[in-house]
């Protein structure tokens, strides 16, 4: 019995290395085993027997990666001894690969974390660049058998192409072979042809057809073989299994008939089959790329940033409008939207969205700040040095740290596809036995088997979910509701309890009626107060900043601290200010009922600003619509001074809770979920970050400030909160459309199977019908979603 390597599973031909009572084919495999064993990662071999990859024997130390020019082009981020880089690793092929690559931090202490993108065959790694070179990281991956591919295209960070060039080459080869094989096979289709010359060279034509079909079968269909083989290694069936069986059946039967002179076989049908299947794959890739492009560059979130004009005037603009050289203001808690140079201010940057580490990095004037960092402290003035990359912000928003449970519908799709393939194989076996044993027609049997396997490919079934929900995401984006991914649409369709925050969510930030009560403030104190408030994103701070009638002198603010849910502490011109709740400034007077912001200067309580909130227009109508099919709760950090008014605004069944801290809100949502409720939390994204992440669907309200909130599942433009019931309605319609597409796909397969089983469907026709079915599903999905979106939002806008 041939010995096999314990790590990679390959047969040992020459060299044999023994270690730890195990046999390896080379020292590379033994080294990988040692690394895994020393770091207690032996589960790698339990996840998938013989799943290891043989390390590359060529020693390539990637020294060129340490050249500063190349290093700066390849890396995504490098700051404070931490570097983030995304590397292309084509050999990623199974779950054990993913598991091992995401466990790198357990193997190598210099690696902070690693995340695999299986579809793109990439791994994003954060490592300690202060003590570890990029070339050392690349060599380390190579030693594990995962050699990264780094070429000029990778280094230049070019925009990804819309279509894989390899696929285009395969289509070209298949098309060339299809046309020439049809030409060579044509004479045999002429009945009664007795041409001596054709009969003399008939066998030569068959040999040429065989040779032309070889590159099609061996190269053009290679992706189907790889996919099917990967599934078999895990003892599973996938969508490509029936196709591979059909290709082999058609090819070997053609070889048999051509060799024995029975006929010219089915080489023409085989080449045509793969040509049309690859065209269908081309179409799918183009459509998927279109969806991805739309998400990254066109569906801009309602994130605005304050731009400073040359005349020193400030205005809010979308980040998509930013250009190199523009100057912007970044307040406490705001995301830096693009690489920039610090012009003014004390920068303490939190890069946890990028690296996972919450360590604050201090920046001095003139230093570079990377996009994706969050300012913790006073307001900054920055100059943009690189264009905004919306796809980069999208990746931050989709960071693994902020992901929730897996998609329910995705599981259904996978299960249906799996059983669907199993049923198709049973039907194929029964049909083959019928034509072979009962009809005694071997030639027809092969055609029937091939036609069944091709026409019944559940590609259309698998496309139903991504295309339907992708179109719904576009419609929601056009209506200023920006969802993170298709899973959010699915979860929205199942929500039965809506939890609202009050301040900044139901109220309008710039429309509060404000009155002052207390010791009169001097002009200097008002200017200092305004300078402090300018740094905050809290709705009450923004309202009070706009209300104060004094010049904005951009005074230097020191020791700025903003405590979520409590208030602000800072120092201006030697005076220490506390601005916030009564408990925060240690107010000792009578209990206060109204919503108020208290002011203390150098420990002395000066007075308070009293807010009478103005609620967003049409809130009562929105609440009424939502309450028809959902339970509603209101959580407010303010006191209960407006309780009686809110009771008139909300249905009697609404649960109202006041004086709620951020932790109280999170715990309340947890209690609802334990009762079985599926909760949507609608908040401002500042005090409500924990509650947004805990909820099944977290929706962050954005007005005209930078409200990039990675813990949320969706961002809603504040002006469109009136459309909330429509967003919920269209998500439910989306799921119905998915099931309609499922039924159409099943109906198509039943009709196709009935023709194929009876022998009335040629394999070539089946190959043409397969991409046609996919196109049909995409067309129906697009039409239904567009019509539904038009009806729902047109009716909503009118109301």
Automatic annotation (TrEMBL):
<feature type="transmembrane region" description="Helical">
    <location>
        <begin position="419"/>
        <end position="438"/>
    </location>
</feature>
<dbReference type="GO" id="GO:0005507">
    <property type="term" value="F:copper ion binding"/>
</dbReference>
<feature type="transmembrane region" description="Helical">
    <location>
        <begin position="167"/>
        <end position="187"/>
    </location>
</feature>
<feature type="domain" description="P-type ATPase A">
    <location>
        <begin position="304"/>
        <end position="397"/>
    </location>
</feature>
<keyword id="KW-0472">Membrane</keyword>
<keyword id="KW-1003">Cell membrane</keyword>
<keyword id="KW-0479">Metal-binding</keyword>
<feature type="transmembrane region" description="Helical">
    <location>
        <begin position="737"/>
        <end position="758"/>
    </location>
</feature>
<dbReference type="InterPro" id="IPR023299">
    <property type="entry name" value="ATPase_P-typ_cyto_dom_N"/>
</dbReference>
<dbReference type="InterPro" id="IPR023214">
    <property type="entry name" value="HAD_sf"/>
</dbReference>
<feature type="domain" description="Putative metal-binding">
    <location>
        <begin position="4"/>
        <end position="76"/>
    </location>
</feature>
<comment type="similarity">
    <text>Belongs to the cation transport ATPase (P-type) (TC 3.A.3) family. Type IB subfamily.</text>
</comment>
<dbReference type="GO" id="GO:0055070">
    <property type="term" value="P:copper ion homeostasis"/>
</dbReference>
<feature type="transmembrane region" description="Helical">
    <location>
        <begin position="207"/>
        <end position="225"/>
    </location>
</feature>
<dbReference type="InterPro" id="IPR018303">
    <property type="entry name" value="ATPase_P-typ_P_site"/>
</dbReference>
<feature type="transmembrane region" description="Helical">
    <location>
        <begin position="444"/>
        <end position="469"/>
    </location>
</feature>
<dbReference type="GO" id="GO:0005886">
    <property type="term" value="C:plasma membrane"/>
</dbReference>
<keyword id="KW-0406">Ion transport</keyword>
<keyword id="KW-0460">Magnesium</keyword>
<feature type="transmembrane region" description="Helical">
    <location>
        <begin position="764"/>
        <end position="793"/>
    </location>
</feature>
<dbReference type="InterPro" id="IPR021993">
    <property type="entry name" value="ATPase-cat-bd"/>
</dbReference>
<keyword id="KW-0378">Hydrolase</keyword>
<feature type="transmembrane region" description="Helical">
    <location>
        <begin position="265"/>
        <end position="283"/>
    </location>
</feature>
<dbReference type="Pfam" id="PF00702">
    <property type="entry name" value="Hydrolase"/>
</dbReference>
<dbReference type="InterPro" id="IPR001757">
    <property type="entry name" value="P_typ_ATPase"/>
</dbReference>
<dbReference type="GO" id="GO:0005524">
    <property type="term" value="F:ATP binding"/>
</dbReference>
<keyword id="KW-0812">Transmembrane</keyword>
<dbReference type="Pfam" id="PF00122">
    <property type="entry name" value="E1-E2_ATPase"/>
</dbReference>
<dbReference type="InterPro" id="IPR036163">
    <property type="entry name" value="HMA_dom_sf"/>
</dbReference>
<dbReference type="InterPro" id="IPR036412">
    <property type="entry name" value="HAD-like_sf"/>
</dbReference>
<dbReference type="Pfam" id="PF12156">
    <property type="entry name" value="ATPase-cat_bd"/>
</dbReference>
<dbReference type="InterPro" id="IPR059000">
    <property type="entry name" value="ATPase_P-type_domA"/>
</dbReference>
<keyword id="KW-0597">Phosphoprotein</keyword>
<feature type="transmembrane region" description="Helical">
    <location>
        <begin position="237"/>
        <end position="259"/>
    </location>
</feature>
<keyword id="KW-0813">Transport</keyword>
<dbReference type="GO" id="GO:0043682">
    <property type="term" value="F:P-type divalent copper transporter activity"/>
</dbReference>
<dbReference type="GO" id="GO:0016887">
    <property type="term" value="F:ATP hydrolysis activity"/>
</dbReference>
<protein>
    <submittedName>
        <fullName>HAD family hydrolase</fullName>
    </submittedName>
</protein>
<keyword id="KW-1278">Translocase</keyword>
<dbReference type="InterPro" id="IPR023298">
    <property type="entry name" value="ATPase_P-typ_TM_dom_sf"/>
</dbReference>
<dbReference type="InterPro" id="IPR006121">
    <property type="entry name" value="HMA_dom"/>
</dbReference>
<dbReference type="InterPro" id="IPR008250">
    <property type="entry name" value="ATPase_P-typ_transduc_dom_A_sf"/>
</dbReference>
């Amino acid at each position: 019995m041939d010995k096999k390597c314990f790590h990679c599973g390959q047969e040992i031909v020459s060299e044999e290395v023994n270690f730890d009572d195990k046999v390896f084919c080379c020292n590379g495999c033994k080294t990988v085993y040692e690394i895994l064993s020393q770091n207690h990662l032996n589960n790698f071999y339990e996840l998938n027997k013989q799943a290891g990859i043989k390390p590359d024997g060529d020693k390539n130390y990637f020294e060129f990666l340490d050249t500063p020019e190349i290093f700066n082009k390849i890396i995504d981020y490098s700051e404070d001894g931490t570097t983030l880089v995304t590397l292309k690793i084509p050999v990623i092929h199974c779950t054990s690969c993913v598991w091992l690559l995401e466990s790198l931090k357990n193997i190598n202490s210099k690696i902070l974390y690693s995340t695999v993108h299986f579809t793109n065959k990439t791994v994003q790694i954060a490592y300690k660049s202060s003590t570890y070179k990029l070339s050392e990281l690349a060599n380390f991956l190579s030693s594990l058998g995962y050699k990264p591919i780094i070429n000029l295209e990778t280094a230049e960070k070019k925009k990804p192409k819309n279509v894989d060039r390899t696929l285009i080459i395969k289509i070209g080869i298949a098309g060339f072979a299809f046309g020439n094989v049809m030409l060579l096979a044509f004479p045999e289709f002429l009945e009664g042809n007795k041409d001596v010359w054709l009969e003399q060279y008939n066998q030569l034509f068959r040999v040429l057809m065989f040779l032309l079909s070889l590159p099609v079968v061996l190269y053009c269909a290679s992706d189907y073989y790889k996919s099917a083989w990967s599934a078999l290694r895990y003892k599973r069936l996938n969508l490509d299994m029936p196709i591979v069986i059909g290709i082999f059946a058609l090819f070997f039967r053609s070889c048999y008939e051509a060799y024995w002179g029975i006929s010219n076989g089915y080489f023409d049908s085989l080449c045509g089959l793969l040509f049309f299947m690859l065209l269908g794959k081309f179409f799918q890739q183009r459509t998927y790329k279109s969806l991805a492009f739309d998400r990254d560059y066109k569906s801009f979130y309602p994130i605005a940033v304050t731009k400073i004009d040359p005349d020193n005037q400030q205005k809010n603009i979308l980040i998509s409008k930013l250009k190199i050289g523009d100057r912007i203001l970044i307040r406490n808690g705001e995301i830096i939207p693009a690489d920039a140079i610090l012009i003014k201010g004390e920068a303490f940057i939190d890069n946890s969205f990028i690296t996972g580490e919450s360590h604050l990095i201090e920046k001095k004037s003139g230093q570079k700040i990377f996009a994706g960092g969050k300012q913790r402290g006073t307001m900054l003035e920055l100059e943009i040095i690189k264009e905004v990359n919306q796809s980069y912000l999208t990746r931050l928003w989709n960071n693994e740290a902020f992901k929730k449970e897996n998609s329910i519908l995705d599981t259904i799709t996978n299960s249906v596809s799996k059983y669907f393939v199993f049923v198709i194989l049973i039907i194929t076996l029964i049909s083959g036995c019928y034509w072979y044993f009962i009809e005694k027609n071997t030639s027809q049997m092969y055609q029937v088997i091939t036609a069944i396997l091709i026409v019944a490919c559940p590609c259309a079934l698998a496309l139903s979910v991504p295309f339907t929900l992708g179109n719904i995401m576009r419609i929601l984006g056009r209506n200023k509701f920006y969802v993170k991914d298709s899973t959010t649409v699915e979860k929205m369709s199942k929500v039965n309890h809506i939890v609202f925050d009050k301040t900044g969510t139901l109220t309008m930030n710039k429309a509060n009626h404000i009155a002052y009560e207390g010791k009169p403030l001097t002009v200097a104190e008002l200017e200092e107060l305004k300078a402090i408030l300018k740094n905050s994103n809290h709705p009450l701070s923004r309202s009070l900043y706009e209300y104060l009638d004094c010049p904005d002198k951009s005074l230097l603010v020191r020791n700025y601290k903003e405590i979520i849910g409590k208030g602000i502490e800072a120092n201006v011109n030697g005076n220490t200010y506390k601005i916030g709740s009564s408990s925060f400034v240690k107010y000792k007077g009578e209990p206060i009922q109204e919503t108020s912001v208290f002011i203390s200067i150098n420990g002395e309580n000066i007075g308070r600003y009293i807010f009478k909130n103005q609620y967003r227009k049409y809130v009562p109508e929105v609440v009424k619509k939502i309450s028809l099919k959902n339970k509603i709760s209101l959580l407010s950090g303010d006191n209960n001074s407006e309780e009686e008014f809110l009771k008139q605004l909300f249905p009697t069944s609404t649960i109202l809770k006041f004086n709620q801290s951020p932790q109280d809100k999170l715990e309340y949502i947890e209690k609802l979920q334990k009762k079985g409720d599926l909760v949507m939390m609608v908040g401002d994204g500042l005090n409500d970050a924990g509650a947004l992440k805990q909820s099944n669907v977290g929706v962050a309200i954005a007005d005209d400030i930078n409200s990039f909130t990675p813990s949320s599942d969706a961002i809603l433009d504040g002006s469109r909160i009136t459309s909330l019931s429509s967003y919920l309605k269209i998500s439910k319609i989306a799921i119905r459309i998915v099931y309609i597409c499922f039924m159409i796909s099943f109906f198509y397969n039943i009709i196709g199977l009935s023709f194929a089983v009876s022998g009335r469907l040629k394999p070539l026709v089946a190959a043409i019908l397969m991409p046609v079915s996919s196109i049909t599903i995409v067309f129906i999905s697009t039409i239904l979603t567009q019509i539904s979106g038009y009806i729902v939002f047109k009716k909503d806008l009118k109301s």
